[in-house]
Every structure is written in C-alpha cells, then in structure tokens.
Amino acid sequence: MFYAKKLGGLSSAIPCVCLWRMSFEYPIPDEPRAVCYHATGNPGEVLRYEAQPCAAPADDEVLVLLEMAVVHPSDLGMIGGTYGRLRPLPAVAGREATGRVARAGAAVRSLKVGDRVRMPEAAGAWREAVVAKAGELLRVPGDLPAEQACMSFINPPTALLLLREFVPLSGGDWVVQNAANSAVGECVVQLARAAGLRTANLVRSPEKHAGRLKALGADAVFADDKDAVKALAGLARDNPPRLALNSVGGLSAITLMRALGDDGVLVTFGGMTADAIRFPTREFIFKNVTCRGFWMDRWGRTARADALHSVYEEIHACLRSGKLQMAVDSVFPLAGYSEAVARAAAYGRAGKVLLSGPAFSA
Asked: In angstroms, how far is CA 75 from the centroid of its own chain?
C-alpha cells in the first residue's frame, strides 16, 4: 500500500503502514470551511474556500469531520455545469468522501464518536464538517486505509455492476473495454480476474500502461487504433466477448462492437472524446449487437437500499482481501483544493487526486 504525498510540488510515493486512526479525539474547527461555488464555470475561476458554519447536532444527528475526499472528472463537470445532474446554487463541491463522527446526539445509537461514514453526497463532500441525520449515513469499515475507503462508492461499484447487470458471464469468458487505464477500467480488470473472467483492454499508449494493467490481472492489452479490431478478433476467436465496456465513444466504440460475438452488448458509461457513438450496421444486423447505457448515479438512486449496501459491502471486502486496490496520485489538504483540481485535470496522473480533512490530519 502506498500513500502519495505532495512534496515540493512533486508527487512522491512513500510507504503507508496505516492510514486509519486509533485516536478518536478530532479537533473540531471553530469555523468549518468548504469548497463552494456560486455559479457554474471553470473550476479555477468559480471555486471559493468559504466558511460553512455547523449547528450543534440534534438528538438524532451527528457531526462528521472530513477524513478524505476524491477529486473526480464528474466533480469538475458538475462545477462546470456539464454533468448530468447539477446542484442548486450556491453549492459545496465534491461527491465522494469519508468522514469520522466527532459528536453524536443524545438519541443516536447506530453510530458513535470515531466511526467512519460516507460524507453525505447531496450536501457536497469537499467540506471540513457537516451535521447529518445518523440514520441516513452509511457506516464504512474503519479498518480500511483512508485513501481506499474514500474511493469505494463510485468507481468500484460501477465496475462491479458493469460486469453483472447486462450479460450473464461465466469463468473464462472475455470482456473487452476501452480506456482500460482509467479508474473504472482498472477496477474492471481486478474484479474480472477475481471472478475468473478474462479481459482484453484497449489503451492509447500500451507501452505506458500494459505493465501495470497486467500486474493487476489483465489478460491482454492493445493499442486503441485501426489494428485493434484484428488483434481482438485473433485473441478470442473461439469465445468472442459478449460484453464490451465503452467510456470513450467515437471510433473506439465501433472497435468494441466489432469485437463482440453474437448477441453481444455494448455498455456505454462515459464519453471521454465527446464523439458520438457510431453504429456499425453489419454488427447490428448479423450479430444482433445491443447498445445500452449505465450511470452509477441513476442506479444508486433507483436501486433498493439493501442492494446498494450489498454492493458496498462486497467492494469493501475486496479492498480488505487485496483483490482490489485503487491508485492514488497525490493528496492535498482541503485548503489546497486549487492545486488539487489543477492536478486532477492534468494529463499523466498516476491515480486519483485526494483531499484530506481534519479527521485525517488529527
């Protein structure tokens, strides 16, 4: 396990023995602050670090201090006004984070001081503190490293559901995906390997990413170019993939569809190139290929609570057992949000950018 820390403007990895805390006495800020925006636009221009006072928790509430938050492209899209679901303004930025309970109301029995929970997404996660109803918070295992726990609610569940919701797969079956070096792509590789599935992975620069992907369990890695169709056809000739995962769009999506076997399903959950998906007529007619879409946000809002909790529990078990691990590029304090956002938007990151809060630095 490694903890990426910002040192002198450079990202350096140092061994991490343990990122969770044995002490539960967290300093509560006199005037909690949050990363806010009053208008959508360029994050570098509209974000502000502002006071966000918290009242004392009522009998059924808890005060939660930020432990660790994630900076996602979807966060930047929400701030920019381009994401599929926007928040009423003014808003606090951020969707995914963990916190620690610092105070609990007199009637609270489900949580105690020191417990780790998911920061409530609707309120905005990039904040030092929040008061919330105890019964509405998801408890998160405290024995997981903070860096992994805070990233466990969006990308890993997306990968798990992509592998399960669309096509019944069994051991030895192939799954093909593009943008395999993305956070979801790396989760797909690891969860597929744990399930006995094989993955064929397309990336822009295999010379850069093949080593890491194969170390995570990838069976094959190819360049996402004009030769990819031939490479994929030769790889799985006797057992062509029935599931293809697309987060790029454009010509890359065509490559995936042409790699599918009869009755295959292409699932699109992102559009990195912003190019429209083109539909190859031959595959539709002669292979009966189906195109579907997936958005974790929508699934989470429409699924039964027990189904969602079951997915989280499975992801946390995979993190605990070592079947799943997510890469961290760098960690910034919450007050360093502007540097964190710039780093998250930069090319060549080696993982996710995180923001640490008072419950982590205590």
From this structure: 11
pLDDT tens sequence across 64-98:
999 999 999 999 999 999 988 899 999 999 999 99
Helix axis angle, 183-194 to 206-216, nearest 10°: 40
CB-CB contact of 201 with 245 (8 Å): no
User: Would the pLDDT of 54 be above 60?
Assistant: yes
Q: How far apart are CA 191 and CA 205, in angstroms?
A: 23
- For residue 66, the surrounding DSSP H or E stretch is strand 61-71
CA separation, residue 27 to residues 70, 115, 253, 333 (Å): 22, 15, 50, 15
**What residues act catalytically?**
83
Give the pLDDT score at 24.
57
Rounded to whole angstroms, the Cα distance separating 351 from 183 reads 7
Q: Which fold has domain 2-151+326-361?
A: Quinone Oxidoreductase; Chain A, domain 1 (3.90.180)
Where in the chain are the domains?
2-151+326-361, 155-297
As a whole number of angstroms, the distance between CA 253 and CA 266 comes to: 8
The CA–CA distances, whole Å, from 171 to 123, 194, 195, 199, 315 equal 41, 10, 7, 12, 20
Percentage helix, strand, coil for the chain under 3-state DSSP, each rounded to 5: 30, 25, 45
**Tens of pLDDT along 236-253?**
777 899 999 999 988 898
pLDDT over 90 for what percent of the chain? 75
Between 4 and 285, name the one with better pLDDT: 285
Q: Which CATH class is domain 155-297?
A: alpha beta
Cite the DSSP H helix spans in 62-179. Answer: 73-80, 146-149, 155-164
